[in-house]
Amino acid sequence: MSETYGVNIEDWLSEVNEGSPVYDLEERTYQFAKEVRLFIKGLPYTLANTEDSKQLIRASGSVGANYIEANESLSKKDFIMRVKICRKEAKECVYFVRLIRETQLLANDQEGFRLQDEAGQLKRIFSAILERSK
Q1: What sign results for the dihedral spanned by CA atoms 61, 125, 129, 28?
Q2: How far apart are alpha carbons 111 and 113 in whole angstroms?
Q3: Per residue in 41-89, pLDDT tens?
Q4: Which positions ≥6 away from 88 have C-beta within 8 Å?
Q5: What is d(CA 87, CA 66) in angstroms, rounded to the nearest whole number?
Q6: pLDDT at position 22, please?
Q7: What is the CA radius of gyration of the chain?
Q8: Running DSSP on this structure, what letter comes out for residue 4?
Q9: For the CA atoms of 88, 11, 75, 94, what is the dihedral angle to 10 degrees?
Q10: What are the E-state strand segments in 9-98?
């Protein structure tokens, strides 16, 4: 069971996910970044898609990378800062997935919708972690 600065990660996730199965957050953020990359591969090549995709790729990878950094932090202050960055990057992912979804006529928008929802869930998870860390 992961315990960081007196906060039990499994407890946050079970509360945030409201009965959904508990996931390893490092693995979940990795899978999210991977799925974003696969989603982007299916987009048509346009200047807007290229620029939005670059931003989305950076933000999606940064969510997981900063979460790993948070888990390895040396102080509570550093932990909180890294989790705030995770939340900020997840918000950015919501923004760019939404932007891509609303400016494209995608044959199958299910994946875009699912990624936007997952980014929103990650944002809520990191918000819950921050609340519990105070």
Answers
A1: negative
A2: 5
A3: 989 899 999 999 999 999 999 999 999 999 999 999 999 999 999 999 9
A4: none
A5: 10
A6: 47
A7: 15
A8: E
A9: -10
A10: none
Domains and CATH numbers, the chain: 3-133 (1.20.1440.60)
Q: Using one digit for the tens of pLDDT, what is the confidence trace for 81-99?
A: 999 999 999 999 999 999 9
**Under a CB-based contact definition with an 8 Å cutoff, are residues 123 and 94 in contact?**
yes
Give the span between the Cα atoms of 25 and 134, in whole angstroms.
Answer: 20
Please check whether residue 59 is in contact with residue 93, taking contact to mean a CB–CB distance below 8 angstroms.
yes
DSSP 3-state assignment of 62? Answer: helix
For the chain, how many helices (H) and strands (E)? 5, 2
| Contacts (Cβ under 8 Å, ≥6 apart) of 34 | none
How far apart are alpha carbons 79 and 87 in whole angstroms? 12
Q: What is the pTM of this model?
A: 0.80
In sequence order, the 6+-apart residues with CB closer than 8 A to the CB of 54 are none
What distance in Å separates the CA atoms of residue 11 and residue 17, rounded to the nearest whole number? Answer: 10
